[in-house]
Sequence to fold (368 residues):
Amino acid sequence: MYTENDSRLANQLLTHSVELKKGQKILIQCIGLNAVGLVRALAQQVREIGAHPFLKIEDPEINRMMLESGDEEYWKSQAETDQLPLMKQMDAFIGIRASENIYENSSVSKTANKAYSDHFLNPVHFEERVNHTNWAVLRYPSAAFAMNAKMSTERFRDFYYDSCLFDYNKLKEAMKPLEKMLRATDKIHLKGEGTDIEFSVKGQNWIPCYGKRNIPDGELFSSPILDSVNGHITYAPSVYQGKPFEFVKLVVENGVVTDFDSSNNSALEEILATDEGARRFGEFSFGLNPIIKNPMYDILFDEKITGSNHLTLGKDYEIAPNGNESAIHWDLVCIGADVYFDGELIRKGREFVKDELKVLNPGELLHE
Fold:
């Protein structure tokens, strides 16, 4: 019916991540059919809690067909008739991304993606789900997923559950000194191979993430002051809107991307042309999951890489705003840059060097 690991993961999602209570309503969305076991475990445990599951199982190929053919009228209808009224009734949401082909949507045009983002994704998910439900999203392991991680299927499956079922309460405590320090910081400077970029976070809100929203988790995020970002930055491999990028390099002046290079410049140019905010940044974060060490073309994992930061193109989060209202939100990850707070070295490469922050290094977090 389902595995013991799926039962453990379902329990963590329901009791720790979304904190589901008796009588509440939860929407469980599964995109892809190979995660049905986890959906079964979730549905059974939701009923055992005394809550009410609403199930939505979707086929990735049908979704791609709808993305390719969808326009503003179609997505407005989908949002207003079906998903927005349903989401407004939900107390919680769990989204399982179980597609086995991360490039499924690579042929979807810029115009079609923008129609979907503007008239479905933003109103249903960014505005309603993110702000008004207890939610969590996650991927699900598969042979294709393991291939992108350059691991055997068995090894990847073990890695997946280890990183998802990590002791997030321990991480929560370990993040507190870094959060305190960040709240007192004005300028952050990242310097490493292909990267030399600086920006202000003065007065910004900081959000520690320890298994409540994204699984696997392990990050501490805010947003940079919109026009304060200056310098250049080089990112690790990424996939966005189904389009692969082996690298992305950006040059930034007063918060705006003025030049760029990548392994797919035509696609990057289209993304940057989405709207005015697409050339600006809406999030900055520290990746802190000690299990995750290398990029694997999946942002829910890659943005948590220990010793990494992501400086995100596009829309901010309402909980840590900076005024960027773009239709895109592209978490691009920079790994191993030295990090300075107001001129003081805080992290050398991937290891924190300040005594009070050494608890965040993998050797400490994984030590029993």
Notes: The chain has two domains: 4-164, 168-365.
